DNA sequence: CGTATCGGATACATACTTGTATCGTGAACA
DNA sequence: TGTTCACGATACAAGTATGTATCCGATACG
């Protein structure tokens, strides 16, 4: 047995910066490839290639492809929450805040709607894999909670009453952005970005246009 | 050149009943397996096995897996349109008709929400494959047209004005059912079936509850 | 009743993918 | 400056997929 008071070896760093960087590059590449090819269509090989590594690096950082998806979905959900809270921090009118939140929920600007594609991909994968389902459901819940918080804040400060519970409103908003953006990927021009905020949002808020 | 007036050979049947039956069984099996495993995850082998055939039968009826998806998505869209028009034919009140149409759009009863899963799967595949995209976009358009027709009929006979164009309304409805049912697959109990018709629909119709 | 052909089975060639086991190199620490 | 170990590369072992080429039996027709 090892000497009790001698810390076996405080490793060079908790997790070295280098390791962190490779993980990040692999995750970036993975988000591209998953969006382009889907979970099964994406190969570990292509992900590593695009990240500039070989599969050796991959299996040194992730235990499997499924493991990678868990990490990736977590990171993506955190990014969404980040965008939501950032949009909420702007000192604009409550309506503007809600619009911005809608937009933030939809996708990262300039990313060619990759994020919503990934979300769909994660969801489908989660339907089929129990581990991924637990993880993804937790992430979705975090996103919903962030949204409920923001929406509650916005509507009380504007002193309006939603025609449904805030939770329902948030779920509807999420389903709607998800569904409409997916549609737009096969039929550009269908239900444009702005229409959701300008046409549907007021109706859902119960505000006469 | 063949003698003009002698029809070369009116084949046994345009397409023999037996062939038709096999194709149908394969399509049924395919809709199960695609829903369970996704496009890439589904193997031709498993589809055939479940249909009670070997791959020989498959490649004798379809030229490839992609070809199968095209046929399957067409069949599925036709089923949806069938359900929609059937729901519209009921001589109920316009509100009831719209509710029924919503429900019909969502899924085939008793099919464990397989249809909406397939729809998502088709959509994702269509995003990535040009051929599938053309076919699926056409099917989606047909569904929308059927919906616009029904909705227009229902609202004029009830003499109300939508707070948006009928086309927008229909797109919103489709995005919403699609998105919410997908959510429900990973988190049962989220935005229940009835809530859409009873809570959201009236709001979208611009009717005070 | 013989026969052509259709429909499906079998067998095969080929290509890919995942994951493991092993090895080498360079950075950080004593 | 020597040494160790972390990190990533290389090589390998299976397993699995698609699609093709060929074969065989049943069915419909003359």
UniProtKB/TrEMBL annotation, chains A, B:
Signal peptide: none annotated. Residues 43-62 bind DNA. One of its GO terms (molecular function) is DNA-binding transcription factor activity. It comes from the Bacteria. Residues 1-10 have a biased composition (Pro residues). Residues 1-21 are annotated as: Disordered. Keywords: DNA-binding. Pfam families: TetR_N. SUPFAM superfamilies: Homeodomain-like, Tetracyclin repressor-like, C-terminal domain. Residues 20-80 form the HTH tetR-type domain. This is TetR family transcriptional regulator. It comes from Humibacillus xanthopallidus.
């Amino acid at each position: 047995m090892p000497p009790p008071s001698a810390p076996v070896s405080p490793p060079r760093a908790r997790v070295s910066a280098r390791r962190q960087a490779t993980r990040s590059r692999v995750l970036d590449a993975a988000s591209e490839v998953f969006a382009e090819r889907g979970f099964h269509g994406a190969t570990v090989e292509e992900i590593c290639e695009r990240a500039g590594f070989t599969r050796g690096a991959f299996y040194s950082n992730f235990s499997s492809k499924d493991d990678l998806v868990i990490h990736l979905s977590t990171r993506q959900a955190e990014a969404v929450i980040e965008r939501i809270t950032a949009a909420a921090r702007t000192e604009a009118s409550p309506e503007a805040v809600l619009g911005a939140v809608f937009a933030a929920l939809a996708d990262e600007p300039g990313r060619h709607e990759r994020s919503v594609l990934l979300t769909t991909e994660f969801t489908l994968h989660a339907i089929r894999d129990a581990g991924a389902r637990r993880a993804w459901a937790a992430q979705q819940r975090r996103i919903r909670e962030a949204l409920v918080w923001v929406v509650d804040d916005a509507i009380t400060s504007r002193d309006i009453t939603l025609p449904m519970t805030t939770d329902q409103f948030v779920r509807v908003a999420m389903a709607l952005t998800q569904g409409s953006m997916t549609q737009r990927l096969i039929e550009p021009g269908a239900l444009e970005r702005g229409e959701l905020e300008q046409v549907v949002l007021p109706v859902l808020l119960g505000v006469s246009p």
